[in-house]
Each structure stands twice: as C-alpha cells, then as structure tokens.
Amino acid sequence: MTALQPDNTSDPPARLIARLEAIVGRGNVLHSKADRFVYGYDASVFRGRPAKAVALPGSTGEVAELVRLANSEGLAFVARGAGTGINGGALPQEDLLVIELSRMNRILEVDPDNRLVVVEPGVVNQDLKLFLAKRGFGFSYVPDPGSQVVSTIGGNVGNNAGGMHCLKYGVTSNHIAGLEVVLPGGEIIEVGGKTPDRPGMDLTGFFVGSEGTLGIVTRIIARILPLPEAVLTQLALFPDLDSAARAVSGIMAAGILPAALELLDRRSMTLVDRAVHIGFPDAAGSALIIELDGVREGLEIEVGRVREICTANDAVEIQTAETPEAADRIWLARRAAYGAMARISPTIYIADGCVPRNRLSEAIGRAIEICARKGLEVINLAHAGDGNLHPLIPYDQTIPGEKEKVIEAARELLAMCVEMGGTITGEHGIGVEKQEEMTLLFNGRELDAMFSLKLAFDPADRCNPRKIFPVAMFDRLQLSGP
Amino acid sequence: MPREFLLPRNRGQSLAMGVFEWARLCRPMNDTPMNDTEKEMTATLTDSGLAPSRGFSPAPHLRRAWDAAESHCNRCGFCLPVCPTYRLTGAESASPRGRLDLMYAAADGKLELSDIAPALGLCLGCLACQSACPSGVPFGELLEAGRIDVAGEKGPAGFTRFLLGTLLDSPAFLKLAARTLYFYQRSGLQKLLRLTQLLRLAPTLARMERGLPPLPRPASWRGQIGPLPAASRSGGAKPALFFSGCVMDAVFGEVHRCTLVAMRHNGYTPVVPNGQGCCGALALHSGAEALAKEKARRNIAAFEAAGDPPVVVNSAGCGAAMKAYGGLLSGDSAWRGRAERFSARVVDVSELLTRETIRPPEHAVPMRVAYDDPCHLAHAQNIRDQPRMLLQAVPELELVELPEADWCCGSAGSYSLTHPKMAARVLERKMNHIAAAGVQAVATGNPGCLFQLALGAEQRGLAIRIVHPVQLLALAYTGREKA
Amino acid sequence: MNKSAVLASPAESLLGADGVHTSQAALAQHALDGLSPSVVAVPDTSEGVAEVLKWAHKDGLGVVVWGSGSRIGLGARPSRYDIAISLSRLNRIMEHDVENLTLTAQAGVTLLEAARTTVAHNQMLAAGWPWSRRTVGGLISANRPVPKRLLYGSVRDQLLGIRIALAEKGLVGFGGKVLKNVAGYDMTKLVIGSLGSLGVIVEATFKLFAIPHRETYLAAALASPILAASLATRLANGPLRPACLFLLSPLAAERMAKAQKLAGAAREWTLVAGFDGRSEAIRRQIADARALITQAGGDPRPACDTIGEAGGRCLTAEEESPPSVLRLRVGVAPGDVGDTLAYLETESPGDEPIDAVADHPGGAITLLFSLPEHPGESQLTETAGRIERIRAWLDEHAGFAVLEQAPAPYKSRISPWGRSSGAERAMGLIKSRLDPKGILAPGRFPEMNGHLGPLS
C-alpha cells in the first residue's frame, strides 16, 4: 500500500558487524541473508525490506549503545518485539538495523503493595499473566490483545494494544505507570514511575502508542490488578445485529459496566460452529458475550438485569455460565473465530476501526455492504462495548487484484468510521498500513504538530523511519534536509 | 486425511552404528545461522507471502507442497511461543514462521536453497508449531519438501546414504552395534577411555562419545512373552500385527517384549509379519525421498500379506511416518491407494490399548512417574491422553504432569551432532523440569526420546529411570521385570 | 502610556470590549506571586483563545491561563506575564452523548456545571467531586488526583479527547469521543499536567459513568499512620473494590469531624474508605472492611451514606486555605504512604501534630503548614530547611514534593518544584516545538525551560 523502495540491500559490511558484535556479543548479531530476509515481515499483509543487520541486545545499556552506533553510522533502526503487529509498524522501510528485543524478557519485580510489576519489553504478555497466576500473587495484568500468547509487553506498549476487557479496564496505556526509554539520540530517560502523577506532562502516556518512532522502551512499570472474586459470563443470542446492539446500549444505560462485551455476527457464528461446534441455533443472527466481574453480591443481581435487558431486546436464547469451564466454552466462541476463519482462507485481512458505541450495528451493516460491493466475504467481530469493529476479510493473494480490492474496501471502511465520529484504528495502530488515512482524521496543522514532536526527538527520522505520518511528510523532509 | 509427516529427529539409532566413521562426515554448524556474504540480496518484495506460481521453481518439491497446502501462513506468530529454537535464540529465522517464509522465498526463487539450508537444519522438526497454528499450515510437509530440495536431486550422498539405506535395514548389523556399544559402556572401557582423555585428540569423536546415551541391556524379545493370561484366553483373541522397526528391534528389545505382553493381556494376539523393515523416516528427514519411498513400499507389501488387522507401533516416530505413507506415495498411482489403506491401519500401542477399557493389572507399581510427550505422538499424531491412560491404569503409580511436557527434548542423533549447543540447551530445559518434578521414572514412547532423556539423566547424575509407558504397564501385569 | 493601555486595544480588536479587562481589580485578581498581568483576556469562543495566542506568539507576550484559579499557585513565578487568559466564559457544554456516555465541554465548565447536566441522565463525570467549582480545563492542566481513582481511574484514564489552541498552529484537536483510539501520538496525554505550558485547552471530552446506586463511607481510627496505610493496602489488594481510601492525620481528622459526623470526634489517625455500587455489594464490603479493621486493631465507626461537600473538601484538602498556609503536595508510591506520613510526623518541629491528608492509591499527600504571614529570617530558614529535608528523604523513596501554595516570602526561598526527575528535558523538547517562543506559562517550569535544544 505504501510504495516500498526498490530493494537493493547488500550484505552488511564486516566492520559494521564487528562493531555490533562488540556491543551485544558475537552470537547476538544476525546477518546471514536468510536472517536478514525474515525481518522483512511482521503479521501484517505488507512486506518491508530485509534488515541490514539484526542485533539482539540484552540490556538497556546495549540498546543505547546500538542506537548511538546507528547514529554514528547514519543508519536508521527499528525496535521489534514478537513481530505480531498487523499495521506493518515493525517493517524496515529502508536499509536499517533491527533491534530485536526478544532477549530482554525478564520479569524484574513484582510489587504487590503498589500493584505494579517491572518488566523488560521482551516479556510475552501471556507469560507475565501465567507468572502472576502461578506464583499466586492474586493479581493479574489485564490487557489482553488477541495476540497475547505471543506478543510482548514492549510491543503492546508501542502499539497501545487493546483487547477484550477495555470497556471496564481500558487499553494498555491505562495500565502503564512508567517507562525507561532510549531516545533516538541514545540518551536514556525514565518517565513516570511507581509514584503516580509526577509533576509535568504525562510523558508515559505520550510514549505509549508512539509505535517505536520516538525511542525504544527498555523497561516497563505496569499495573496489576487484584483478581475479582467473581466473574460471570453470559452468552446471549439475538435474531439480528440491531437487537444485540440495542441490548448493549440497554446494559450501559442501566448503569452496568461489563468487563467485556463481545459481538459476533451470523457469518462468524457459522464459521465458529463449524470449527468448534458451539451449537448456535439457526434463529440466532448475532451473539453477544457479556462478562461481569467484581464483588459477588452485586454481580448476581446485575446478571439478572442483563438477562432482562437481553430478553427485552428479543434475545432468542441466554446462557449463563455456572462454572469456569462453561465460561471457557462461551469464550471459545469468540476466541475460535480467527482460527476458524484462518482455516477456510489462505490469507485474512483484519480491519480495525472504531465508532461511537451506539452506531456499531450500523457500521457493521455498512461494512458488510462495502465488502459485498467488492465481491468480498467478510465476517464481523466487535468489541461492542468500545464500538471497536473488526471485519475480517478473507482473500487469496495469489489471485491478481484480490488484495488491492481488500485494501480499497478497508479504506472505505475507515472513511465510514471517521464519518460516524469514530477513528481509523481502535487498537491496531497506524504503522505503514494507515499512514495515508491519517489525513481522514487529522488536518494539516494537527499532523504538523505531531510531526514536529517526532522531529524534536528524532530530527533525522532514524527511529523506525517513515511510519505513522503520510509518506509525503517524510519526502518533504528529505527535500529540505533534516 | 491430512498428510501427517515423518519424524525427523529421533536418530538415536544412528549412534548405534557406524558412529565413528560417520563422525568424519558430520561437520558441525553454528547454532545461529551462518553469515553469508556471497552476493547481493536481489529479492525485491512489495508484498508479503508468495507470488503466484510461475511454473519453474528452483525448489520443485517445496513448490508442489506449497501449491497442495490448503492454508498458508498469515505470520500471526502463534507458533513462536511453542518453538524451542525460537524460544532459546529469539531469532526470527529460528521460528516456524521464519522457516516458512524462507521456504516460500526459496520456492519462489527469491532466495537460494543454500541460503535457507542452515535455518531448516536448525529446526528440530518437533512440529509443536503445527499444533499451535490457527490456520492449520502443514509445516511438517513443507519442511519435508524443503529438506528434499535442499538435499538436491540425488539426495544425501556417500556414507549417509549407505547408512540410511543399507545399515538401517540390516538387523544383524544393528544388533552387533548395539551389543558392542553396550559392552563398551558397561565393561569399563568407556570409563577407561574417558579417564585417559585419549579422545581429546579427536574433538568431534569426543563430542559424539559424550553424547552417547547409556544403552539398555540388549534383550531378545521374540518368544519371551510368557504364558497367556487366563482372562484373554477366555475372551477370544483379537488379531494385531506388530511393527518391530530397526533400532527399536536392535536396542529396545525389552520395550518390544513389554508391548507384546501388554497387548496379550488385553486380548490381542500379536503377529510379527516377515519382510518388514525400517520405516524410512530417517531417510526422509535427510532428504532421501527415493529411499524412503522404497522402504514404505516394502513395509506396505509385507503388512498387506499378513491380512488387515491393525498395524501396531510403539515408536512415535515410526508411527507418524507410517501414518504419512499415503501422502508420501500420493504421486505414485500404483501405490497411492495401497499406501492410504496401510496408513489408516497404523495405530500407536497406546491408541490400541485404550480403544477399550484397559484390563486392570494385578500388581502395584508404587512409583512417581512423569510422562513426557514425544513430539511425534503429541504434535504429529495428536496422541496425548492415551499414553497417560496407560500409566493411570497401573495400580499405585502416581502420574506427575511435567511443565512443557509436549516440548521437544532435543533428541539425539544427527541433531545433537550438527547442532550440539542447541540440542544441549533444549535438553537442559527439559531436564530442569524433570529434575524439579522429583520423580523416579520418566515415561516416553519414542526411541530417540528414550536415548535423549537417558543421556540427560546421566549427565546430571539423576537416578531416574527412562522407560516406555508399556514397560510400566507390563510390569503391572506380570509383577516382574524380566521374561 | 502604560503597558495595559498598549495591549488593551489589540486585545479588544480580537475579543471585543467585553472580552478584555484592564481594571485594577481585574488585574489584581489575576496577580501571581506579586506579578500582575497587563490585560485579562476573557474570550467566549475557542477561536478567540486561538486569536489571542496567535497575537501573543507574534509579539512575544507572556501568557498565563486561568481556570478556577484553585491551583494557579503551582509553579514558579512567571518570567513574563503580560496576558492572563481567563476561561470563565468558555463555559458551554458542547455535547452530552447519553447513549455513549461521553461529555464534551468547554474548558471553563466546572465540575458542578457538568454534574448538573449529566445527573438528569443518571450519569456522572468521575474526574472530581460533583460539587467542585474547579474547571475541567484546570483538572487536566494540573492533573488533579481523582478522589475515586481506584474505581474510575485518574484524569488520564477518563479523558478521551481535547481541543487545544497552540501558540503557532492555532486550534487543533486530538483524540475523540471513542474509548479506543490509537491513531497518531496520544497528544491528549501530553497536556495532562502541562499547567498550560503547551497550549490552551479549550474543549475536552470525558467518558462518563453511571451514578452508582449507592455510595457509602466507612471511617476507622488507628493507632499510627503505618497501621492505617497497611490496612488501606489490604483493602485495595483483596477482593473488595473500594472507590477511595484516604488517610487523615489526627488534626485533619478533627477538622473532618467538625465538618461531618463521619470520622467521629476522635483526634486520631483515621482511614476513610469509600464504596460505590449496588446496596448488596456495599453491605457485604462494609462488613468485610469492618472485620479487617477490627483485625488490624482499628476502631470502625458507623458507616454513612454521604459525606457531603464539607466532608469531601476535608478528604481531598480542597478547602480554600488562608493565604498564610503553605501547601506541600507530596507524591510517593502508594506502598510508601504510611512510612512517609510517619516520617513527616518526626520531621515536625517540637512534635507539633501534622496537618496531612493522603489519597492512598494516588500516593498523594497534602501537607498544610500554618505559618506566620510575615516571617522573620529564622522562620524562613527553618521552614526552607524543613522542606529541603523532606525533599531529601523523598528523593530516597522515589517521591517528590511540590509547592502548591505558599505566602510570597516563602515562595522566594523555596523552589516550587524541588529536584529534577530527569524527564524535564524531554518535556522541554516538546514545549520548544509546540510553543517555540516560550510564551505560555513562561518560567513556571524552571528546569524544563533550562533544557531546551536537541537531545542528540
């Protein structure tokens, strides 16, 4: 989608390799052709260039030295976690050094008194959850992007990842208390910390979600929350999307704040059923998963209220999980959706947009229309409480023109989200995927204001270059010189 | 049925043979893929994934496997956390996703086969990625095709070919090798040699010698089964054909004996057809496709001649390979149907015995035992519960769940020779879990894993027995260890 | 001609005569640390704010933005102070989206006005007390601790979008009204705590919450701040879901008792726990909390369902302090609140009881010193030394202490910010781009201004 430069990367000079090895050690520099080649992909549908070289640092100091080396060589660099981003944010857009943070994967501290953990960026989200569970701390790290079994906390921070529990608990940013960052010039700074509300701007919040364009996060202080004593999960089936959406509004209007509110459309239910045999009745046109958590006493009443609201909105069936296993079964319907889709299609495009909650069903309806007009299939999953829709569009990239159609459809989808008062990405980020669509949301002055901050930190655009902002802004920069 | 695939890594048996000659042929590779500064990177990509087929491919097997695959890698990365080599290196090229990308690129001519060879070599072939893949990418089939292409048209040459072809098919040689090595280990010769440090003169040999697992006492198993239990005499006999294999036959005679005991105690009358031999998995793993097909045809013919009862295997690797004969011979119109029918008959011994309720054994075996999933049972055949059920049937046996039980153990054979550091790291992780479990025995149903875990236990000085699950079951039936 | 007269006419050409005040009274009312502005601009539109800034940027005039003025004392004496922008006329609610639970309000809207709008739909803005006269713009700029942050989060968790006037670039908007939005940099976070140094917030969108069925407060007397704090930690880290946990020193507890029956008459260390939610859930939580309090050797008082404005003011130390009071805002990690309070007690001269309230989960302690308004040199030296010692102690505990209010003689002796956190340089970089001439709140963040320039 973005015009990638013709790729003529050559093997890195031995001198560069030697200098990198002097920093991170011999085994931690990768530079064979195959090694460099695979850093040209992430989980997006885009392809970057092969890396010039890949370094796997083991400490903040090594990251800072790598960054300083890159600067002295006039070489751009990009930090990479598990490479599960779907916006192309980790892809090399030029001949650059990949700083792979997978080795920095230590859980440094669990601080129950302050409800915080201190971790390195390469810690896998799920590993942190399992660690907390296994040690019986009675706390959990809440953000749960779909990629949580593999994606790293560092990557989650870079992209301000969302998940299924944002309605009540917020996105990654709401769970980050402090960061240690290696700035693009190689300087190490700490922002935020264990002490809340330090004087001055909320730099922590500013760095979270900056997609690695303002520096490299090397240490993260994240919030953990005490486990709720009760979690109650319900599955409500509705004749159509509209009635489910009305139920969502009804639940919110009743003053109930569910931990999660997930919506599946009929197509996704059919696919899920085929894959994991949930047994959705034919009369169900949409499914809503409602999870409530908190103090047991109030919760049972709220579950009853949710049931009433769903019934009043024509629910054809409502199940309440009585056991954790039954709750898992309900969640399986949501979690299996991506895999169910993946199994029927060689490749899938996952769209991500956000609209005000009360316009979700309209947005999904229009997404289906947009795809139908282009002759594309689409199944819809949505974080209904957040108004965050994820149309999944299966396609076969070996058919010429197919992918282009998908990308056009995605553009129309985003324009629609903005028109409805929403945004072009709820939780997946901009990367290279949506850099041109930024103009749908921001005017020139707004883009300039943000871009001026990018340049304040990174005047030569060396830190994850040519991302987030429309390509023309970088081109202008090159004309005028940094 | 999806074409499940071979077991590339259990090559413990290779140690049991012309080990010393082979040492010359095995050039160790770096664990991290090697630097390659040959020529300009010419791949120009504006897109991820593979372009449409353009007819010619420098990697024809890969191209075919890719075209045949029903799903493709979306690069979601769900395979990363389960891949031992990725977890230990953090390198993308050491991940399943990376290997697939490289194989696609080679099939498309964007990279040379020689570029991707080190990355494919580093793969343990454990197929944990296949279990984790939400898209159902047939990683095993693609890896197999990639290795055939990397090996080239003629396949592996010289001694490797001789080894895979002739020696594995020679029961007499295998038995001789097993007995010789057993004698070497138990007679004091090994101690003497290690004490004198003579092997320091030959580092490669020394490394191999250190990697030599302690071998079990050679046991003859045919005719050592003992009288039939009364229960099965009255219950009517169910016919079953037994696959004896090559290394299992030579080295693990006791496991075979116990398998037959357990089968007979559950009402089966095992028959061992003549004319059968090595399953061919190792050949295929080394890219020797023609050889593997030859072995497959021979086994199919041998078992057809014995009728149509189930074909019972007690080696995870052999079972996985034989269940994939249908796929292996799919291009051969004369054999395809026969191969598919044969593959459908193959069952692991744990599958067979759990088809019906296991007959409760009489004798208690009061031991704390951990079960370690062989990759080629858990990932290649999706057999996880059945072996555990065998162990749970044993009175007073306490079954312990091992963390990461379905992680590869880094099984020995050529992998530990070509990638000694990586194999050692994978084994170390496994042994950490085993040591922490506080068990008296670890049960696992694959010869390579039996070798590898025995080696790990020996290196750590752990007094833990490494056994096949059927050994504990047979013990519970008969109350004694020997025939 | 004096400066007021010079600046009045361009200001009036932008805002009209009723948008500009130059009376002595108006100027005095907006005086800061002994400095008065030359004009007070009172724009009634966002565009008006942008126009004033554009002019100030062009002419290099120093600007300080005023909300309710409740925390205007925070920060150093301005290095230039030509224009005071008062947001008192930017007081319209732009949108209350009932179905989506969002409120978009101009920056000068007070929490009270917001509450009046949202209460009709049984919704609330949880960023502060509903009776507060603080403005939403001020809440964001000063990053005020949210009283019930355990349940509703802090300002950063509730703020969805902003419109802001920048010195050079004029009106821009970031964020929006959806709960999730990761397009571009999170500029809304940047203005939180920026004290009007980056631009003038003209409009903000917050997420709203349903008004809880019931709110209940439970107070308990405890023997020491350490006991009270560890009890607070236990309450916050278990299955209960308290909305707030405040610690009051005996002196503050006594004031609370006078304002509100809740704390009882005792002059003791007091923990106040608040619970929001359904009656059933609250009953259970109050019972559990009581048991925990008793177990910890505390003395639980009867629970009550409201603390009213007077009680709330005590809890968050919001009462207007007389000018003679020095307010020190101490920040520590929540787990260090008990130790910090115990330390502050020992630091009090002659074992005088300390006047402190702490928002435990926010790690925010407000310490009030009643001082002679016209101190002698020894008094000044003593007070400055005491704060210096407190800051040194806090340094070792990753804490900080900023001066929120101090009589002028003290403020000239005591740095309002204390020690650098190391992040000021990055803040300086950001400021240098959004306010290149440094006209906004000039000199109020001294360390930040000292670090302009490229990092590499």
- Percent of residues in helices of chain C comes to 25-40%
Q: Of all protein chain pairs, which has the greatest interface, and how many residues does each chain bring to it?
A: A-C, 102 and 91 residues
CATH C-level name of the largest domain in chain C? Alpha Beta
Number of domains of chain A: 5
Describe the structure.
- The complex is a heterotrimer of chains A (482), B (483) and C (456).
- Chain A has 482 residues and is of the alpha+beta class.
- Chain A has five domains: 14-100, 2-Layer Sandwich (Uridine Diphospho-n-acetylenolpyruvylglucosamine Reductase, domain 2), CATH 3.30.43.10; 107-226, Uridine Diphospho-n-acetylenolpyruvylglucosamine Reductase, domain 3, CATH 3.30.465.10; 228-340, Alpha-Beta Plaits; 345-434, Alpha-Beta Plaits; 442-480, no CATH class.
- Chain A is built from 16 helices and 19 strands.
- In chain A, strands 12, 13, 14, 15, 16, 17, 18 and 19 form an eight-stranded antiparallel β-sheet that branches. Chain A has a five-stranded antiparallel β-sheet with strand order 5-6-10-8-9. In chain A, strands 1-2-4-3 form a four-stranded mixed β-sheet.
- In chain A, helix 8 packs across helix 10 (296-312), helix 9 (266-276) packs across helix 11 and helix 12 (360-373) runs antiparallel to helix 13.
- Chain B has helices spanning 12-15, 19-25, 60-68, 84-89, 96-107, 113-122, 128-132, 139-151, 158-165, 171-186, 189-196, 203-210, 230-235, 247-251, 253-265, 281-285, 289-304, 316-323, 325-328, 336-345, 349-353, 375-378, 385-392, 414-418, 420-437, 447-460, 469-478; strands at 238-242, 268-271, 311-313, 346-348, 368-371, 398-401, 441-443, 465-467.
- Chain B folds into four domains: 12-34 and 54-151, Orthogonal Bundle (Fumarate Reductase Iron-sulfur Protein, Chain B, domain 2); 171-210, no CATH class; 230-353, Rossmann fold; 368-478, 3-Layer(aba) Sandwich (Rossmann fold), CATH 3.40.50.
- Helix content of chain B is 49%, strand content 6%.
- By secondary structure, chain B is of the alpha/beta class.
- In chain C, helix 1 (3-15) runs antiparallel to helix 3, helix 9 (225-237) packs antiparallel against helix 13 (337-346) and helix 10 (250-259) runs antiparallel to helix 12.
- Chain C has 17 helices and 19 strands.
- Chain C has helices at residues 3-15, 24-29, 46-59, 111-118, 136-142, 149-152, 155-158, 187-191, 225-237, 250-259, 279-295, 308-315, 337-346, 377-395, 408-411, 424-434, 446-449; strands spanning 20-21, 39-41, 63-66, 83-86, 93-97, 102-106, 123-124, 159-166, 170-175, 200-207, 209-210, 214-222, 244-248, 269-277, 299-300, 325-331, 355-359, 364-370, 400-405.
- Chain C folds into two domains: 1-211 and 420-456, Uridine Diphospho-n-acetylenolpyruvylglucosamine Reductase, domain 3, CATH 3.30.465.10; 212-419, 3-Layer(aba) Sandwich (Vanillyl-alcohol Oxidase, Chain A, domain 3), CATH 3.40.462.
- At the A-C interface, strand 9, helix 7, helix 8, helix 10 and helix 15 of A face strand 9, helix 8, strand 11, helix 9 and helix 11 of C.
